[in-house]
Amino acid sequence: MIKNSYNFLVLTFLFSVLFVNTIKAQEGVVAVNQDEDIETLLQLKKNVNKSLINYRIQIFNGNRQGAKKAETEFKKAFSDWSPTMKFQTPNYKIWVGGFKTRLEADRALLRIKRAFKNAFIINLKN
Fold first, then answer.
1. Helices of type H across the chain
2. What one-character-per-residue DSSP string does 47-78 give?
C-alpha cells in the first residue's frame, strides 16, 4: 500500500515537471515590423477628424411656416449658433450648431432643450 502511494507521488511529480516544461516551451517573442508611413497616415486621419463637423442638433421637423417660426425663435433665444433650414421631402428641418464631438453636442443640447423640448442630436457620419 505504501509502495503504491509512493509510486503515485513519483508519477505525479514527473508529470508535473513535464507539463511545466511544456508550458514554458510555449513562450516566445513577437516582433512587429510596421511601415513608417502607417504612423503618418494615422496622424493625418486624427487631424482630419478634428476638423470635421460630426454632429448637429435638430430643433424642428415639419412644414415651412413652422420651420420659419422655429428659426426666428431660436435666433432670439441663442446667439451662439446659427440655425440652418434643410428641406427633406416632405418636411423642413431646422438644424443648429456644428459639433466635432458628441460631448460638445450633448452640452449644447442641454441648453437648447430648455427652449426646444423636442430637440435631439443628429450624427452626420451615418
1. 2-24, 36-51, 64-77, 102-112
2. HHHHHS--EEEEEEEE-HHHHHHHHHHHHHH-
Instruction: Tell me the torsion sign for CA atoms 108, 110, 113, 114.
Output: negative
- Stated pTM of the model: 0.61
Q: Which three cell numbers stand for residue 22?
A: 511544456
Distance (Å, rounded) from C-alpha 67 to C-alpha 56? 16
Distance, CA of 53 to CA of 97 (rounded, Å): 9
β-bridge partners, 55 = 99, 123
**Segment 91-106, tens digit of pLDDT:** 999 999 988 889 999 9
What CATH number has the domain spanning 49-123?
3.30.70.1070
Nearest to 66 by CA among 93, 32, 34: 93
* Alpha-carbon distances, residue 47 vs 18, 41, 100, 103 (angstroms): 54, 10, 12, 18
Question: Which amino acid appears at position 105 of this protein?
Answer: A
What's residue 20's pLDDT? Answer: 61
